[in-house]
Design a protein that fits this description.
Alpha-Beta Plaits; about 475 residues; five-stranded mixed β-sheet; 4 domains; about 15% strand; elongated; alpha/beta
């Protein structure tokens, strides 16, 4: 890490020969940073002061002993770096001003009577600009040498003299110069077109020169993100054939599994993200899985984004709920359109096709919730729905027609809704009393309708096996 800290110190000003400043108090305070200059002749300049300022004054406000207390106290409260005073019009620096500066611990620099404040201002501004430019050049040099994002932030913290962090829009700390969450301070946007933007958080309020350095650091963090995105994309290409096979569901993925480097007994989850733009879906999956301890492979296929996740260690039971909360909290620019994510598995390589199909059915269940963000795990879906959903479309259509055809035709011709009655009856565990209550009809009316539906269907709706067949057929969307 660099040991240089980009700041103009009070000590630095005393070392500029042409200024000829003389130290009158505060010898132990010379390492204070000077951030800007403020010239004032107000007796109480409190409302105009800022931390780190070098205050210049010709002491026009001083009339008699005791006047210095209010003025110096205001500088101390504001955290000013130092006071540079010229006593040309008052016969020198008043003793009570020196005493007040000693009492309030404000460095006091005496300005020669023949030295213009304009000269001091020019020299300090040049010094601040030089320090800022030097810090920016050192950061650029570190970035050009391929410094990782954590290393870049370590350089930035050294240059700024304070800690800094990169934080994603989900609140995840991507990297930082210090552990833990960022402390309150200044937040700068990090450029780039991403569904999950990043920001640079800098501890405290930087001076104008330090702010320029922070802005440079934010720009370099954006470049570092792009570079890491490229590296990650290259690493993900090894699993691209496997992702395509999982998306198609038409071939055994075991042939492409070896490219992942995982063992055949590894426990895996398949995640599918369906968004208007698959690139956005892939980025969202990457963000949600950024801190997952196992191997993660993200790719795109057939207009969707997929993630293959090694979960042999653990998988949080509340992952779907946590992911929903995280994505729902994304502020502008949030992804356009709904974000639907389905989770399948766990499974080993021999069960990956089934896990992928489970993820697809979970996405369909997420879509039925009609929310902007919905994340559904396969465990939330009944086995009967997964079995029906996994059947080929042609078979599903044929089964629905074979089992329900006559009942559907009857409802269409007679303008009745026996299909709905049968569905409610079966979802009430074939209890006439419960179904009648749910449909707001007399129980005898319910029994008549079920008997009529049984005749049309050619089955006994009081028989469990017939009930299963009819209910599975009802689950198939017409």
């Amino acid at each position: 890490m660099l040991s240089y800290k980009p700041m103009t110190l009070v000590r630095t000003l005393l070392g500029i020969p042409e200024l000829r400043l003389r130290l009158r108090s505060g010898e132990d305070l010379l390492d204070r940073e000077v951030s800007r200059i403020y010239v004032t002749e107000l007796p109480d300049p409190s409302r105009y002061l800022s931390a780190g300022e070098l205050v210049l004054s010709g002491l026009l406000w001083w009339r008699e002993p005791g006047d210095a207390e209010q003025f110096v106290a205001a500088l101390a409260r504001a955290g000013c770096a130092a006071l540079a005073a010229s006593g040309a019009d008052s016969g020198g620096i008043p003793d009570d001003l020196v005493a007040a500066c000693v009492h309030h611990r404000v460095p006091l620099l005496e300005v020669p009577p023949d030295l213009s404040f304009a000269v001091i201002t020019e020299r300090v501004v040049l010094a601040l600009a030089a320090e800022s430019e030097g810090a920016r050049k050192r950061l650029l040099s570190a970035a050009a040498e391929g410094a990782s994002l954590p290393a870049l932030l370590a350089h930035g913290a050294t240059e700024l003299g304070t800690d800094c962090w990169v934080v994603s829009a989900t609140g995840r700390v991507v990297a930082g110069s210090a552990p833990g969450p960022p402390r309150p301070g200044t937040v700068l946007s990090i450029g780039g077109r991403h569904a999950v933007p990043w920001v640079l958080a800098v501890d405290g309020e930087p001076s104008p020169g330090a702010l320029e350095v922070a802005e440079e650091l934010a720009g370099l963090a954006g470049l570092a993100r792009s570079r890491e995105d490229d590296v990650r994309a290259a690493g993900m290409r090894v699993a691209a054939p496997l992702i395509r096979l999982l998306a198609s569901g038409s071939a055994d993925p075991a042939t492409a599994f070896s490219s992942t480097g995982l063992g055949t007994d590894a426990q895996l989850r398949v995640l599918l993200a369906r968004t208007p733009d698959p690139h956005v879906g892939a980025e969202l999956l990457g963000e949600l899985l950024a801190e997952h301890p196992g191997a993660v492979f993200v790719g795109e296929a057939d207009g969707d984004a997929y993630a293959l996740v090694e979960t042999s260690g653990s998988w949080p039971e509340d992952w779907a709920a946590t992911a929903t909360e995280t994505l729902s909290g994304l502020g502008p620019p949030r992804p356009a359109g709904p974000v639907l994510i389905g989770v399948g598995g766990p499974a080993t390589v021999s069960g990956l096709r089934g896990a992928a199909e489970e993820a697809r059915q979970a996405v369909l269940a997420a879509a039925r919730r009609q929310r902007r963000v919905a994340v559904v795990s396969g465990e939330e879906i009944g086995v009967h729905r997964l079995l029906v959903g996994g059947a080929p479309d042609a078979l599903r259509t044929a089964l629905r027609e074979r089992v329900l055809g006559r009942l559907l035709d009857y409802d269409d011709g007679q303008h009745t809704d026996l299909v709905h009655t049968v569905r409610v009856y079966l979802e009430c565990s074939a209890s006439p009393a419960k179904a009648a209550k749910a449909l707001h009809v007399h129980v005898n009316t319910l029994r008549y309708r079920i008997a009529r539906a049984s005749d049309l269907l050619g089955v006994d709706l009081t028989d469990f096996r017939d009930q299963v067949d009819v209910y599975l057929a009802l689950l198939i969307e017409g």
